Amino acid sequence: MRILIVDKKENGLRALRSLLEGHGYEVLAAANGADALETALKNPPDLVITDILMPVMDGFDLCRQWKKDARLKAVPLIFYTAACTDEEDKEFALKLGAERLIVKPQKPEALVAVIRETIQQAAEGAKTPARPPVKAPLEDEVLYLRQYNKMLIRKLEAMIEKSEQANHELRLSIKEKELLLRELNHRVNNNLQLIINLTSLQRKFINDEKDAAIFDENQRRIKSIAMIHEKLYLKKGIFNIKFSEYIKDLARSIFNSFVPFDRLLDLKVDVEDVKLDIERSVTCGLIINEVISNAIKYAFSGRARGEILISLHKRGEDDIELILSDNGIGMPYDIDLREPRSLGMKLIYDLAEKQLDGRITLDRSGGTTFRIVFKASQGNLQ
Prior knowledge:
Heat Shock Protein 90; 10 helices
């Protein structure tokens, strides 16, 4: 027995083919009514099982053409659909000459039983008992088109209503999630500010300069993270950070933490208008904090003035390049990025290579330049 199955969805065809072949049927397949007609005329099947809503030629039009063709009209046709399931659809399908309209999904055993029964009844020339009585077949073209258009309009209205309801529920869900995330960012920011305030109070009781410097470094790290969450809470969109604004604010905060300066430092920020997700924003912020802090402390020893550059740009479609440089005295050549001797340098390397999954290089000519290239997070680079 040969069965022709018609469905626009590949997974639907695949599942039905597997079921039928498992029960010993030979299976032909088509993605729409036009292809089905062409296939059937070349190699007539014993049964056709078709969906209704399909491109090129839908199931109803296929049924009408099928039952008009002298070579195919005796071949039984079953509609198997999840879209056209009300009584008017069933009546319309039977008027077109279909043997049955079955609503998806069906249990495999039940579907196979209906297929066997339909093939047997067609072979015996019997009417399908499940078919309700119909007034008359749709032989008149005008009548067919009128009822067909009526059915399409009804389906379109139902789909629009369903789509509007789904969109409404989606908007409510998104709004709820945005409120929850903003509240989460607000609480994280408050907790970080509390830590900053506590460390500031404790800092006043520390007289040892080395211990005080450690406190200051950690406080700057915490501030770089807190600024991210503050911006996420204040902005309407909560999924991306406008990085140019964040870098300028972060650099200003770092510089202010070293006031007063014993030299004149010029900060240049050359940042493309990209947006990064929160994880990469925090990581980049920590890297910038470490490099700029080190530059302010060590790069301009014995010099009256200097320049620090922060640059971030897209490179091709997938890469982002972060450059942090100064025109100071240069980093000593015995410092190895891959075997750092200080916490700051270890943080820079680990954050770049492990957190960002990027590549970091160090250029010591004409000062110090860190160049970090990493992949833009999927869907967040604009």
